[in-house]
């Protein structure tokens, strides 16, 4: 008898925690995010939201518990290949233009992106006029736009934008049509999106 094959969840955390000596940055957390789900971690400053995002991308090591991305241990080559992380403070190459960034990242992930496709994505984030410039010379807002394009040019099962609202705001200078295309690219139905939102005390 054939058993129905199930697709692994985009992300599963079981007892995931992080501590620095006596300081608990993240208490044990259990979480499962299915493909297509959009999940926001909501909490006050210091509640562990950003810590968990960095654990989920493999940027921090777990103290205890485990995290799996599409069935693979976080930090493994398979998990990293399935995760697109768009950091709040983008880290970009000093000697590559925006266009060269996208072409390079696409090639690293086996994406056969044509010059027209790369230029279209650059236009979508509102950087068509700066496509051949170095992001090292950009303002913070322009660097965030470049980071969004870099995050979207590659295939992913889990999108982890460190500050989703701010990064969507980074394309506010583009037309409404272009902003809509960026949002549709981010909110694909075949991937999961993990984000966080802070709380302020009245």
Description:
By secondary structure, the chain is of the alpha/beta class. It has one domain: Rossmann fold, CATH 3.40.50. It is built from seven helices and eight strands. The protein has helices at 49-56, 77-82, 98-108, 115-124, 140-152, 164-169, 176-186, and strands at residues 11-20, 23-33, 38-43, 64-69, 72-73, 83-86, 158-161, 192-198. The strands form two sheets. A four-stranded antiparallel β-sheet has the order 2-1-4-5. A four-stranded parallel β-sheet has the order 3-8-7-6, with helices on both faces. Strand 1 (11-20) and strand 2 form a beta hairpin. The longest helix is centred in the last third of the chain and has 13 residues, at 140-152. The chain is globular, with a radius of gyration of 18 Å. The protein starts with 10 loop residues before the first strand and ends with a strand. Mean pLDDT is 80; it is low at 1-5.
- Helix tally? 7
Report, as a whole number of angstroms, the end-to-end distance: 59 Å
Which geometry do the CA atoms define? Answer: globular
CA-based gyration radius: 18 Å
What is the CATH architecture term?
3-Layer(aba) Sandwich
Oligomerization state: single chain
Query: Biggest sheet, in brief?
Result: 4 strands, antiparallel
Strand tally, please?
8
Read across the widest sheet, the strand sequence of neighbours is: 2-1-4-5
Helicity level = 25-40%
Residue-averaged pLDDT, rounded? 80
CATH homologous superfamily (4th level) name: P-loop containing nucleotide triphosphate hydrolases
């Amino acid at each position: 008898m054939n058993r129905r094959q199930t697709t692994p969840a985009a992300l599963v955390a079981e007892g995931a925690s992080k501590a620095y000596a006596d300081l608990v940055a993240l208490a044990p957390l259990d979480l499962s995010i299915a493909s297509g789900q959009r999940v926001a971690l909501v909490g006050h400053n210091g509640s562990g939201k950003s810590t968990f995002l960095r654990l989920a991308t493999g940027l921090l090591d777990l103290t205890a518990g485990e995290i799996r991305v599409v069935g693979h241990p976080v930090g493994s080559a398979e998990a990293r290949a399935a995760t697109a992380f768009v950091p709040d403070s983008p880290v970009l190459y000093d000697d590559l233009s925006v266009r060269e960034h996208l072409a390079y990242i696409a090639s690293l992930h086996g994406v056969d992106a044509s010059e027209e496709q790369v230029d279209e994505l650059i236009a979508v984030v509102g950087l068509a006029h700066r496509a051949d410039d170095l992001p090292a010379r950009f303002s913070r807002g322009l660097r965030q736009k470049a980071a969004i394009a870099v995050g979207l040019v590659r295939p992913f099962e889990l999108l982890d934008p460190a500050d989703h609202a701010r990064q969507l705001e980074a394309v506010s200078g583009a037309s409404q049509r272009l902003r809509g295309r960026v949002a549709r690219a981010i909110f694909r139905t075949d991937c999961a999106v993990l984000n966080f939102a802070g709380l302020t005390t009245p």
